[in-house]
Description:
single chain; alpha+beta; 48% helix; globular
Amino acid sequence: xxxxxxxxxxxxxxxxxxxxxxxxxxxxxxxxxxxxxxxVATLTTSDDWRLFLDYCRSFHRYxxxxxxxxxxxxxxxxxxxxxxxxxxxGRQVRRNPTRIRIFGYSKRTITxxxxxxxxxxxxxxxxxxxxxxxxFEDTVPIEGHPLAHIEAEHSPDLEGDDxxxxxxxxxxxxxACGFTVxxxxxxxxxxxxxxxxxxxxxxxxxDLEPASxxxxxxxxxxxxxxxxxxxxxxxxxxxxxxxEAESVAYxxxxxxxxxxxxxxxxxxxxxxxxxxxxxAATGARVLKAVDTIDKALTAP
Length: 300
């Protein structure tokens, strides 16, 4: 019965004209975008935001919109990929899996003729058509494939000494950005670190344990990347600035095996005040910053 139904669906799809298929894709894209707004509207508390950031650890290289779509359709997913990509990774998608619809990426070069001069010019056309991906949990190993041992990506919760070992790499990256990095007194027991823009220095309080120190250093690295007062895209709202920096610290620390939830959750809650619009405004920027710093840390 299911095979017969699938054949009928395929036949109906193939019988549609190109214009009808294009219209259907536009409608699906509209529905996907609408579902993003609906899901963002549920992120109204600091706990909701923390859970979403937990989810982001596995999908930090996806766009904010696609993370929302994956989370909405399959909140238990730990990793996703396309059907063929899973086969390349030694996994086979099971029968009747959850089909997760997200925005894909397509790039092609087109040639156009100038109607006035007759000159041919080429340009790149980028589109984001809806496409399907599947969760790791809906795949099984392909016997004999060299990558069949692949596992879902998890970030363990660790406390105590810093398990990341990235302090030197963060320091080198900040130095390359034109900042000096040091430990010292912040003159305020409630201030763990700060970025001073005029003197181009980052200070982390000198009495912090290694795990806390690297957490603060990631937070300040996020400020350096995202919040230059001379930059064009620095948010005007101080609350957004602090929510962004701490969200980056939480996600990136988690990617490297350090759980900062006990410190990050109240900090984000205090600055966000449960403002859903503020949280929505930070999502894409947080993921982009996490990806930028993470790539710098893992670069050869």
